[in-house]
Amino acid sequence: MPTAQFSEGLVRLLPQMRRFARGLTRDASDGDDLCQMTIERALKSSHLWAEGTRLDSWVYRIMRNIWIDEARARNRRSQTFAPEEDGADVGMAGDAGIEAHVELGNVERAMAQLPDEQREAVMLVLVEGFAYKEAAEIIGCPMGTLTSRLARGREALMRALGEVV
Amino acid sequence: MSVSREEIMAYVDGELDETARAKVTLAALSDLDLADAIARERALRERLQGHFASVAAEPVPPAWEAMIRAPSEPAPVIDLAQVRRQKAAQAKAAQPKVALSRQKWFGGAMAAALVLGLFVGGQMMRREGPITEKNGALLASGDLAKALDTQLASAQDGASTRMIATFRNGDGSLCRAFSGASASGIACHGEDGWRMQHVLPGTAAQSSAYRQAGSADAELMTLAQNMAAGAPLDAAQEKAAKAKGWR
User: Fold this and answer.
1) Cβ distance A146 to B23 under 8 Å?
2) What's A84's DSSP letter?
3) What per-residue string of b and e applies to A58-82 under the rule 16 or more CB within 10 Å gives b?
4) B200 φ, ψ to 5°?
5) Cα(A21)–Cα(A19) distance, rounded to whole angstroms?
6) Cβ of A110 under 8 Å from any chain B Cβ?
7) Which long-range contacts (CB under 8 A, 24 or more apart) does A132-138 make?
8) Chain B contact for A143, CB < 8 A?
9) Is the CB of residue A158 less than 8 Å away from at least one CB of chain B?
10) Which of A60, A116, B157, B178 has the fewest CB atoms within 10 Å, counting from its CB?
11) Chosen from B11, B13, B41, B82 to mutate, greatest number of chain A CBs within 10 A
12) CA–CA gap between residue B222 and residue B107 (Å, rounded)
């Protein structure tokens, strides 16, 4: 049985867990599936969480491990499941709603182009705000590996978003 | 530039110690390229955060919270005083909808734990009572299992156990709320049969001193609403679910 502290902590983490899941999977419904699987796994292994340690790092580690297994299984199943990006809005700039949509699309597209391990590093440090050491622990890699993935991910994002001359 | 790319990154990410940080800040004052690089890194960080902020702001599916707060097995400790305190607190806090139903839910779980004690002590241990224990799970058995398998809420005149509602929970499993003479409750269909999620006093026990809630049916409906993902099944859907073996 999860303790009350565990349950309450987990409920509080839900919005940011969902954000991280969306970043990893690049898809709203895949992200929610991943989030739900993570909750189930976390509840089942709640006895393994040491009270007093960070629940967020613990849960994020579970989530990325599930995602890695899932992504591997998907790659085995098929490589051809890349939906065509909609280009319908191109050339219709000027309307604020459409601009917002395009901006959303830009960041999404730029993130989607990153290799998984760079996107994961970018999500953990730049979006979720983990320190390098914490992020490296969640991924289970040396800090040097994390920072070099982060650096490459950042460069690629800047190129894609047109922020590097 | 007098500062490396890695240092710029670490500077923007707040990873530099006081001294190193001061060094970069100072250098940026006289190095326009460096100041520019820092600004671009900051802008990227903000842009990503802004993009993902909308995801974190979306309301979380209520089923997730229910899943976390729902105990997977009935609480083993039975404390009547605590139940009474909880009831009193409930009566006092009649404010927001969500909080109220959650409190009711906890009240229900406590009442279920209490009633469970009665069953374990008596009826349940006899052969083929309504509930048996298997590998730590409470399963419906005997007539109750049969009623859950076969009886439709839309057609049950004269049956000793009534089906009150059929619905899917957050996992997608089919669950049924039932009311009978010896036990009422909610059972969800799994691989090993109907797993009891909640056990409440049956109609015959409702005058007993152990009864905690008002009407057992109302209590059941509250529990069901908290567990359900979506609306209960209508008569046709229920029939179809039965035909598919409640999967």
Assistant:
1) no
2) P
3) bbbebbbebbeebeeeeeeeeeeee
4) -125, 165
5) 5
6) no
7) A132/B10, A132/B13, A132/B15, A134/A54, A134/A57, A137/A57, A137/A61, A138/A57, A138/A60, A138/A61, A138/A64
8) no
9) yes
10) B157
11) B13
12) 11
- Give how far B203 is from chain A: nearest CA, Å: 30
* A132-146 per-position pLDDT tens digit: 999 999 999 999 999
Q: Which helix (H) or strand (E) holds A72?
A: helix A55-77
* B interface residues, A as partner, C-beta within 8 Å: 5-6, 9-10, 13-15, 40-41, 43-45, 47-49, 51-52, 55-58, 60-61, 64-65, 67-69, 71-73, 75
Using pLDDT thresholds of 50, 70 and 90, give the confidence band for residue A82: very low
pLDDT of residue A76: 73
Q: What's the pLDDT tens digit per position in B153-167?
A: 777 777 778 888 888
- Chain A residue numbers with beta carbons less than 8 Å from the beta carbon of B56 are 15-16, 18-19
B215-244: buried (b, 16+ CB within 10 Å) or exposed (e) per residue? Answer: ebbebbebbbbbbbbeebbeeeebeebbee
> For B194, what's the count of Cα atoms within 13 Å in the CB-facing half-sphere?
27
pLDDT greater than 90 at residue A157: yes
Task: Give the whole-angstrom CA distance, residue B71 versus residue B75.
Answer: 8
Contact state of B68 with A43 under an 8 Å Cβ cutoff: yes
ipTM above 0.90, yes or no: no
Contacts of A136 (CB under 8 A, 6+ apart): A142, A143, A145, A146
CB A126 within 8 A of CB B44: yes
Would an 8 Å CB–CB cutoff place A40 in contact with chain B?
yes
Question: How distant, in Å, are the alpha carbons of A24, B154, B177 from that of B233?
Answer: 35, 11, 12
Q: Mean pLDDT, to the nearest integer, of B208-224?
A: 60
Residue B246's φ and ψ, nearest 5 degrees, are: 60, 40
